[in-house]
């Protein structure tokens, strides 16, 4: 997996790479909307299009990929605000999150209004995701881990072959997702991290919903929310 944060720069992936990714920071929350694609087919997925859809579409064009799906890690406005608009623009299905976040997707407009986000719409995904499900894009297959705590329906996408995960707002570099929002639970979140993410292996790298990515091993050793709870 090769990764690039600056969508204006030249692509870093090689023809030998199995996958590539770019991060497109969107909205005032600087949420990591992520485009992941397989090689050499250039079939792609957009994960968590939180807003700024024209910016996402421009990144897709620059990268030269064909987006076939939209995946959602959870239902908070900064991760789903642009999902309905992007689905209409690309004519592709939305997969995720877990159905426990339905109450959030039913209230996207209300949530957006609190942050001055206009043009957002309530919606339902084309497929809810459950623990043990798999999703795929091109030749890439990801296992679904249901990891509640930050939100009741948060899911993580994990590719065993690439030793890579997209963890949304479950885990961050040096921190964990906030749990003071409706449906949040710190104890549940820590349990999700300990029972679902840490067992994946220290060599697993991840992209998260905000800020820089990390690895399971790095967070196991240094993340105070994990080391203090173990």
Automatic annotation (TrEMBL):
CDD domains: YcbL-like_MBL-fold. One of its GO terms (molecular function) is metal ion binding. Gene3D superfamilies: Ribonuclease Z/Hydroxyacylglutathione hydrolase-like. Keywords: Hydrolase, Metal-binding, Zinc. The keyword Zinc applies. It holds the Pfam family Lactamase_B. Residues 30-210 form the Metallo-beta-lactamase domain. The keyword Hydrolase applies. Its cofactor is Zn(2+). InterPro entries: MBL_Glyoxalase_II (IPR051453), Metallo-B-lactamas (IPR001279), RibonucZ/Hydroxyglut_hydro (IPR036866). This is MBL fold metallo-hydrolase.
């Amino acid at each position: 997996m090769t990764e690039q944060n600056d969508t204006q720069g030249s692509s870093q992936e090689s023809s030998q790479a199995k996958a590539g990714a770019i991060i497109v920071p969107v909205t005032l929350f600087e949420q990591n909307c992520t485009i992941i694609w397989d090689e050499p087919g250039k079939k792609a997925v957009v994960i968590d299009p939180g807003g700024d859809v024209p910016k996402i579409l421009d990144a897709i064009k620059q990268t030269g990929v064909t987006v076939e799906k939209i995946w959602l890690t959870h239902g908070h406005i900064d991760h789903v605000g642009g999902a309905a608009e992007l689905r209409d623009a690309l004519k592709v299905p939305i997969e995720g999150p877990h159905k426990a976040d339905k109450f959030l997707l039913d209230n996207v407009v209300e949530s957006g209004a609190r942050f001055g986000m206009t043009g957002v719409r309530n919606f339902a995904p084309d497929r809810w995701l459950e623990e043990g499900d798999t999703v795929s894009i091109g030749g890439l297959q990801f296992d679904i881990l249901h990891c509640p705590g930050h939100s009741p329906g948060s899911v993580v996408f994990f590719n065993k072959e690439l030793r890579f995960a997209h963890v949304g707002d479950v885990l961050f570099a040096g921190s964990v997702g906030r749990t003071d929002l409706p449906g949040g639970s710190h104890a549940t979140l820590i349990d999700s991290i300990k029972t679902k993410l840490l067992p994946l292996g220290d060599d697993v790298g991840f992209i998260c919903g905000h800020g820089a990515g990390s690895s399971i091993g790095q967070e196991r050793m240094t993340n105070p929310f994990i080391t203090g709870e173990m």
